[in-house]
Specification:
176 residues; Pnp Oxidase, Chain A; eleven-stranded antiparallel beta sheet
Length: 176
């Protein structure tokens, strides 16, 4: 993954704030226990739901059943927003990732991602890889499809004093 252009948005930041580094933002993505995904339904209404995601080699991965609303939404519109952080006003850093969800079926990639889920959650996600998808051994081998989100833009909102709003833009988004 290429390094992003990182800027502090002075409009939404204290005068003494500094930008949240990309290294720190990645650390927050790597250690997040829960994220929220926002997708768009076929009729244009938003859909938001919590999920577990893992950060592997500069990409966020999540998985979902074909019976879930987010799967139906992604078939029509791959644009997503993933958020993580806390609901406190005066502490922590919230992170917002914008990108497109790409369906992943490559079993080498899936094997690395399954290992990341197992490592992050002390083995509670026991995911087998076969036929280009995950099978949850802790849930009667329930199948799920895996998606990768390579960030296009990432926002990091520092909420402790001094508050600051950082934007990380990648080369392909530099003009936006």
């Amino acid at each position: 993954m290429t390094e992003p252009v990182t800027v502090l948005d002075q409009r939404y930041s204290d005068t003494k704030a500094s930008a949240v580094s990309w290294k720190e933002t990645q650390r927050l993505l790597e250690t997040a226990e829960l994220s929220w995904i926002s997708t768009v339904r076929a009729d244009g209404r938003p859909h938001v739901t919590p999920l577990v995601a893992v950060w592997v080699d500069g990409v966020l991965y999540f998985h979902t059943s074909t019976e879930e609303q987010k799967f139906a939404n992604l078939r029509a519109n791959p644009g997503v927003v993933l958020t993580t952080g806390c609901n406190r006003w005066d502490e922590g850093t919230d992170v917002v990732v914008e990108g497109s969800a790409v369906h992943v079926t490559d079993e080498k990639v899936l094997t690395r991602v399954a290992a990341a889920f197992a490592g992050k959650w002390d083995g509670r996600w026991d995911l087998a890889v076969r036929d280009g998808r995950f099978y949850n051994r802790n849930a009667s081998d329930w199948p799920s499809e895996v998606f990768a989100v390579t960030p296009a833009r990432v926002f990091a909102h520092a909420k402790a004093d001094p508050r600051g709003a950082t934007t990380h833009r990648f080369d392909r988004q530099a003009g936006r």
